[in-house]
Amino acid sequence: MQHEVMAEAIRKCFIFSAADRENIDRIAGASRIVRFHRAEMLFATGDAADGLRIVLSGLVRIWIANEDGKELTLSLLEPGDPFGEIALLDGLPRTASATGIESGECLFLPKRVVDDLLDKDPTFTRHIVQLLCEILRRNNDVLGGFAFHGLDARLARVIFDLATAHGVTKADNVHLIRKFSQTDLGQMLGVTREAVNKRLMSMVHDGLVQMAEGHIVVTDMDGLRERGAGATVA
Q1: Model confidence over 90-106: pLDDT tens digits?
Q2: What's residue 233's pLDDT?
Q3: pTM
Q4: Which of 103, 185, 181, 190 is nearest to 142 (CA)?
């Protein structure tokens, strides 16, 4: 049964959409399920590449930090999302750290089995190249946001994206089902909690969001989306 669960998780992962059933079964046979706890680090920047991971349950944060310890969240990963693919493919040390935000499980795929598939299946290899190009394009969008958008617009866009990914609609409002503190938001934007607080209170005043027992409630998704499209550097 566990083999079937692992094979299904690999099959649904976009990285392996070009792999055939035989190769997926072979990879599943070499993989294992790993549990992680809240705040547990799955790997750190500079670690050697040991394999690829796919989130099965819980939430995983991918982040980097500067020499002063200031952290920047690069992405939040949900079930079905893979991580660790860059170091897996180039064989160099990890470029970011991964930490569990919630307890959960991930599927660990050893580097050797993915390397073997890359060597033997040119269709899969071309697919991986295309995915890397998509990652580069996405990173360019993120860098553009930092370079050309002010903090107000960037925060609005982050909250809009979180509401889209982690929200449920109740009485025309979108309630985020997970708590994201001002520190969490600051780490996603590379700014202090205090800076986030000022912008967040402005959005509350303007009727875009509300706070309910630590949860963000979006009261105007269209207005928040428009705010996120702003391009004033601040």
Answers
A1: 888 999 999 999 999 99
A2: 40
A3: 0.81
A4: 190
